[in-house]
Every structure is written in C-alpha cells, then in structure tokens.
Amino acid sequence: MNFPSFVSFEVTDVEHGYPYAIAWSLPDGQYKSVLVKPEPEWLIDWEAGNLPIDAPSMQDVIDKGETVVDILKEWDLDFEDGEIYCQDPILAQYCFDLLFEAYDKECDFDIISEYDLYKHLDSFDVDDQRRWIMDTEGLSANLCEDVVRTMLFLNARLESSHQEEDEHE
Prior knowledge:
alpha/beta, Nucleotidyltransferase, domain 5, globular
C-alpha cells in the first residue's frame, strides 16, 4: 500500500511564529520527525512566541535541530509526487513558504487538506475517527509526530474500509 505524503508542523506561535519541529510521512508508511534549527532572522521574534509547555528549549532546537537547507534537500527526495496533505493547509503553506523563502526559493508542492482524501466521508466522521485513533493509541494532537502517525493510521483505516465498500457494491 502506498500512502500519501502527510506533514505537520509545531510552531512558536500560530499567528506569526516559526516552525521548530516538523514530521512528514513517506509512501511506505514510515515517517520522519526533526527539530528545525532556526534561521538567524527568526531568532528576533522567537522568544515572543507562545510555545507549548512541552516544547524543547531554544538551546535544544539550536543544538539538535536540522538546518532548513538540509530539510529542503530531504523533501526533494521524499515528496516526489509534489502533493502534501495536512490538517491545517493555511499553517502548512505558511511554514513551507517561510522555509523556502529562507533560501530564496519558491515552494512548488501542492498543499492539500487531508479532508480532500476522503471525499466519500463527511468531515465530522473523519474528525471522529481521528479522535478515536488518538485516544486509543495514546497520541497527542500537539505533537507533529503524533499528528502524522494519526494521519497514517486514519488513511489505512479509511482506505481499507472504502475498498471493502466498493467490493460489496
């Protein structure tokens, strides 16, 4: 089974913040998760952000984070088809643009709402199933890695049930 590419970001502030953690999935269902080493111009506003209590320290992000340029190089390999699904397309587009603009590049990926994968279902049903997966798997909606894992579980669950429905018709 090939999975779509999913992505999730953790940001310093939802309105005008910077990504400090990113998780994304691969076609084989595995995922990657990295801390993001902030660009120098991001540090000006970093401390003003409303970081979650469980966010890593600034020093951890600087010491353990991957550089933006290394992340962009990895994405060139990992996002071959160019379509990336997420729960919050506006936030994701903002983060992608911010990361690419740091190196004077344009984001050429299509950022698509996760709901577009499941047009045969009502968005409330998708949300209910997402909450059920998070509850039963002990995952957090605040951690990008857990969000991507949930999207992978949800996709596998919904696609297999959709295929079963098609076979019975």
